[in-house]
Amino acid sequence: MRAPEDCNSMAELRAAIDTLDRSLVALLARRAGYIDRAIALKPAENLPARIEDRVAQVKAKVRAEAATQGLDADLVEGLWHQLIEWSIAREEVVLGADAPKETREI
Q1: What is the mean pLDDT of each run of 10 residues along the chain (106 residues)?
Q2: pLDDT at residue 45, rounded to an integer
Q3: Which residue in 12, 32, 28 sits closest to 79, CA to CA?
Q4: Residue set of the binding site
């Protein structure tokens, strides 16, 4: 894929963005697979779907990575907030919202 500065037309730029978007969707699908695995593993460790310490940890890590990459940390945290909430809701379908309220990390 061409670097942004190597795109000489909007058509080339849009094609590169479309390719990148497909890669991002594939990565999100892969991440969802890990969420599904967490659903299988959490009951054996008596863990709930929502672990607030882990939520805070993930958000802090992506904020730091955004800063390292020169990307707006608030934007990235907002995107991950949506992703995390979707993931927790996905887990709660199986684990329930009233699962044990421990705060051990996954």
Answers
A1: 93 96 98 96 96 97 98 98 97 82 45
A2: 96
A3: 28
A4: 14, 31, 42, 91
What is the 3-class SS of 21-55, one letter each residue?
A: HHHHHHHHHHHHHHHHHHHHHHHHHCCCCCCHHHH
With tokens 């894929």, the residue in question is 1
Binding residue numbers for substrate = 14, 31, 42, 91
Question: pTM to 2 decimals?
Answer: 0.83
Residue type for position 79:
L
Helices 52-69 and 73-95, axial angle in degrees (round to 10): 150
Contact 80, 57 (CB under 8 A): no
For domain 4-95, the CATH architecture is Up-down Bundle (1.20)
Token pair, residue 103, equals 């705060």
Q: What pLDDT is stored for residue 68 in this prediction?
A: 98
The pLDDT assigned to 100 comes to 53
Burial of residue 87 (CB within 10 Å: 0-12, 13-18, 19+) is: buried
